[in-house]
Amino acid sequence: MSSALTDLCRYPIVQAPMAGGASCPELAAAVSEAGGLGFLAAGYKTADGMYQEIKQLRGLTARPFGVNLFMPQPAHADAAAVDVYRQQLAGEADWYETPLGDPDSGRDDGYEAKLAILRDDPVPLVSFTFGCPTPAAVARLKRAGTLTVVTVTTPEEALAAQNAGADAICVQGIEAGGHQGTHRDDPANDCGGIGLLALIGQIREAVPLPVIAAGGIMRGSQIAAVLAAGADAAQLGTAFLVCPESGANALHKQAMTSPLFNRTELTRAFSGRPARGLVNRFMSEHGPYAPAAYPEVHHLTSGLRKAAAKAGDPQAMALWAGQGHRLARDLPAGRLVGILAAETAAAGSALALRNPA
Fold it and tell me: How far apart are CA 111 and CA 46, in angstroms?
C-alpha cells in the first residue's frame, strides 16, 4: 500500500463497513487493536448516531480506523412499480403484524451532515459507497488530514474516483456480500458483474491508485492471492460478521454456516438495489418482482425485516453474505486477524518458493 495507507495498519487486512449494525465500535476496535483496519458503517444512521459511534470507538482504541458513507441517490424509481411491490408485500405485513414503511423516507442518508461532522472532527480514513464524491468534498477531507477511498466495481468507476482526487479505491468483485457498490444502478447490468481477480487486473491497468480488494475473501491464502494480483490490501466483511464482537443479529450469524442456507444470490427484494445474501423464502418469493428502487424498497421493507428478526424468523431477514460464507469462523475478531495474517504470510512464502526470483 502507499505509505500513508500502510501507516494505518500493521497487516493488509481491512474489516468491511457493514451497514445495519454488524460493524459496531466493538468490532472495529478489536480489528484495529489486532493490527488490521477497523471500520464503522455510517449508512442508515443519523449524523449524530455516527458521531456517537466514533466517540465510542475512540474510547476503545487509539489505533486508526475508517468511516464509510453512503452517497445520496438520484430519484429515478418508478413510483407505480414501487406501489405494486407494496401491494405484493401486504401479506408479509399482515403475517408479521407490522406496517410497511414509507418509501419516501429520504434519499440522502444524511450525507452532508455526516460530511460536516467528519470535516470538523476528522477521522483517519473515510470511504464512499454507491457513488463518487465531488472533488471539492474530497479536497475538504484531505485538508482535514483524512484519507479517502471510493468503492468501485468497474474500471470506469475507478477513473471517476481518480478524477475526484481519491487516495485509494476499494475494488469490489461480484462475489462480495451485501450491496454492490456500483455508482449507477442500472437494471440492465443485473446479470453482469466482474469477478474480483479479473477486476483487479483491469483496474490496475486503468489507474495507478492503491487498491483495497473486496469480495468473497475468507482465508489468508485468498488475501495473498489478491495481493499477488496487484491489490495493496484485502477487505473482509462476511469473515468478521460472525465474530462475537460483531453487532449482527444472532440469527444472521448462525445462518452463515447453517445447512438451511447453502447458497447466495444477488437480489433487489429487500432494498431495491442488487445485494448478495443467503437465499431464503423472502428472497425467493419476492426477488423476481422487486423493482429497481433504492432506497424506496429499503424503507418499505425495513419494518418487516426487524419484525422477522424479533420473531426469530431468518426466512424474511436480509442475510447478507459473500460467496465464501461457508468458510466463516466463529472466532474473536483479534484472533481472526492474527490467524489471517499468519495464513497470508505462509501463502506468500509458499508462492515465493514456487516462483523464485
Answer: 9
Q: Within a 13 Å sphere around the CA of 118, how many CA atoms are in the beta-carbon half?
A: 33
C-beta separation of 241 from 43 below 8 A? no
The answer to whether residues 295 and 70 touch, using CB atoms and an 8 Å cutoff, is: no
Q: Give per-residue pLDDT as tens, 302-357.
A: 999 999 999 999 999 999 999 999 999 999 999 999 999 999 999 988 777 777 65
User: Which has the closest alpha carbon to 12: 38, 41, 40, 37?
Assistant: 37
**What is the distance of C-alpha 331 from the center of its chain?**
20
> Using CA atoms, how far apart are residues 196 and 189, in angstroms rounded to an integer?
17
**Domain residue extents for the chain:** 3-73+108-248+324-354, 78-107+262-318
The CATH homologous superfamily of the domain defined by 3-73+108-248+324-354? Aldolase class I (3.20.20.70)
For residue 316, give every residue at least 6 positions away whose Cβ sits within 8 Å of its Cβ, in sequence order, or none: 92, 96, 280, 281, 282, 304, 305, 307, 308
